[in-house]
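Late entry, written up from scratch paper. The run itself happened at the end of the previous shift, but nothing got recorded in the book at the time, so transcribing now.
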Amino acid sequence: MAKRAEGRHKPHLGLVGKAADLSAANALLKHEVQERKRAEEALEQSETRFRNAFDFAAIGMAIVSPEGKWLQVNRALCEIVGYPAVELQLLTFQDITYPNDLEADLGYVEQLLRGEIRAYQMEKRYPHKSGHVVWVLLSVTLVRKTDGTPLHFISQIQDITQRKQAERALFESEARFRDLTALSSDWYWEQDENYRFTSISGISQYHLEHRRNLSLGKARWEVDTLHPLDGDWGGHKAMLERRESFHDVVLTYLSKTNETGYMSVSGKPVFDEAGNFKGYRGTGRDITEQKQAEQAIRIHATQQSLIASFGQKALASSDLDELIARSVKVVGEGLAVAFCSVLQLDKDRHSFILKGKAGEA
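Output as recorded:
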């Protein structure tokens, strides 16, 4: 009886073992399902974050096929180029790239596809749908499949039109300044906070190299051949210390041939954004010919005045020799010459007779 009872319990133990195996398998399957569900949720969350980052980015973003077709575009890109998404996705980036920029863009694309570069960035232009040109900063990377073949490009497009317009305006402003400087002066100069020349440039080559070689790294009063026409450097230094602008200050200089020349300089102080003094900048003109012309006019006027005065005195004077002697002295002083004389041809017209002189020859 005992043997038969023992035999009847063996099938029951086998069923228990199978039930345990089935329970373990169910638990493992449940765990795998839970893990897959968590992975799917994580993937969905990641894709949601990507879509949100893509769709609501402040700059233009796009996914582009290896052939250049717009696969996915965000709102910012549509606003930049003026095309709705449905229209843009019917085009390629080649279709809306400014013709002069297309060759460079395609060159970078080829390098990406060949694996020669990992990414590229360039400034380029898109013709807006309404007709005007938009400048952008384009950044592109390439995503590949697991086997290494190209999948798609990810492009970031930042609108830099305002910056380019500002750069253009600055360039044009500087060009106008250069043109006006060239028309109104012979050279342009800059000084640091210690009044030392840091730059001298301009269109006048007559003495520009000479001035540059003598002046760079020095203050104006440290240039041996440069002096104020009137007074000394004290007044000019005081004006600079007060950070005042100055206009048409006349200086004398010695040329390469040691001849006296004249220049007129104007300048204004320069400050940084914080209001700190950074130096001076200004312009200069060579006015030697002007000064020589003014001097010639003064001499001519003096001559005319002295001649008229001499004639009147000659008519009223009884001593012509004394009148000549006094007149020669006045003429010499009036013309600022070192020596002046009056000679009279003798009766035989063979020689001259000295009638009066002033100074020593």
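Residues 185-286 form a domain with the Beta-Lactamase fold (CATH 3.30.450.20).
(Scratch paper discarded after transcription.)
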